[in-house]
UniProtKB/TrEMBL annotation:
Name the record gives this protein: NAD(P)-dependent oxidoreductase
InterPro entries: Epimerase_deHydtase, NAD(P)-bd_dom_sf, NAD(P)-dependent_oxidoreduct
Organism: Nocardia acididurans
NAD-dependent epimerase/dehydratase domain boundaries: 3-215
Pfam families on file: Epimerase
């Protein structure tokens, strides 16, 4: 089939495109920078434009493009994560696609306060964090389009996606550990819900064509939560460092607020802020029972195997050296 991917040169978009091409599908897409060798045009999804015409003839549109940050303000995230989603939907409709797959986030449940093993029928919860709130609004945009009969849509809420190319959960933590700027609140006992990128792509491909996935929301994670100190401890081991550094939330979160305040004064954006630190204090996990039941989704890469693959990727790029 022909598949159009927004954010086609990004972490998830690129991995998905490679898998599709490997199995013989035709792939095109849009990103901020073009790559004509793989049929990716340049475009800013925050604005309507000629990039939308490139979706013509695609049977499926997978919308991965987003601002993924705790450092960007509401205006910047709203423009891409919400308005950009409407532009991607318009491109899919005009191009004749039969399915639109929206990449949302488990953060739609809010970063704290959800029950352990939370399921898709649990209410989403805005909490004032621009990323959380715009991901919720983006879901509303596509589900409204589905309800109105504009196009069949499926919403995917990935867990904490790591692996080769992951900026938030692989590249950035390794850089911060090397710089001595990484520490975990809650003494590292917060719950992390990792999903290796290849498992996520498996789930996206299942959801993109399954007839029972239309109009549905699916959480896709690795199926198990682990303490944050266990997950990030893998990176310390790769780097030959002792750690992670574990601190009580009452000390670390206020300190991160000071760091973020100084960064604002210096007009520098930093992911080291209270929003990011509070994310590491979660106490609950995310159920994938619905994805298993409806899609036949089953994660195949456990944390040990995923980290082995990630380590090989980091080593090949010289990231693990001093």
């Amino acid at each position: 089939m022909r598949v159009f991917i927004t954010g086609a040169r990004g972490f998830i978009g690129r991995t998905l495109a490679e898998r599709l091409r490997a199995r013989g599908d035709e792939v095109c897409g849009v990103d901020l920078v073009a790559d004509p060798h793989v049929d990716v045009v340049a475009g800013d999804i925050g604005a309507a434009g000629a990039w939308q015409d490139h979706a013509a003839g695609a049977e499926v549109v997978v919308h991965t493009a987003a601002v993924v940050s705790n450092a960007e303000d509401m205006a910047a995230q709203w423009r891409v994560n919400v308005v950009g989603t409407r532009h991607a939907l318009d491109a899919a409709k005009r191009g004749g696609a039969g399915r639109f797959v929206q990449l949302s986030s488990v953060r739609a449940f809010s970063d704290t306060g959800f029950p352990d093993g939370v399921t898709e029928d649990h209410p989403v919860r805005p909490d004032g964090n621009p990323y959380v709130d715009t991901k919720i609004a983006g879901e509303q945009v596509v589900l409204q389009a589905h309800a109105a009969g504009e196009i069949a849509v499926t919403v995917i809420r990935p867990g904490d996606v790591y692996g080769p190319g992951s900026r938030p959960w692989t590249v950035l933590p390794v850089e911060m550990i090397k710089a001595g700027r990484f520490a975990l609140p809650a003494m590292g006992n917060g719950v992390f819900s990792p999903v290796y990128v290849d498992d996520l792509v498996d789930g996206i491909l299942l959801a993109a064509v399954h007839p029972d996935a239309a109009g549905q929301v699916f959480t896709l994670s690795g199926g198990a939560g682990v303490p944050c100190k266990e997950f990030f401890g893998h990176y310390y081991r790769m780097l030959g460092r002792r750690g992670p550094v574990l601190l009580p939330s009452s000390a670390l979160i206020p300190a991160s607020g000071v760091v973020a305040g100084l960064a604002r004064l210096a007009r520098v954006k930093t992911e080291l802020n209270p929003i990011s630190l509070r994310y590491f204090t979660r106490t609950g996990t995310y159920s994938i029972a619905k994805a298993r039941r409806v899609l036949g989704y089953e994660p195949a890469v456990d944390l040990s195997a995923g980290m082995d693959r990630t380590e090989r990727w980091l080593a090949a790029r010289g990231v693990l050296g001093e």
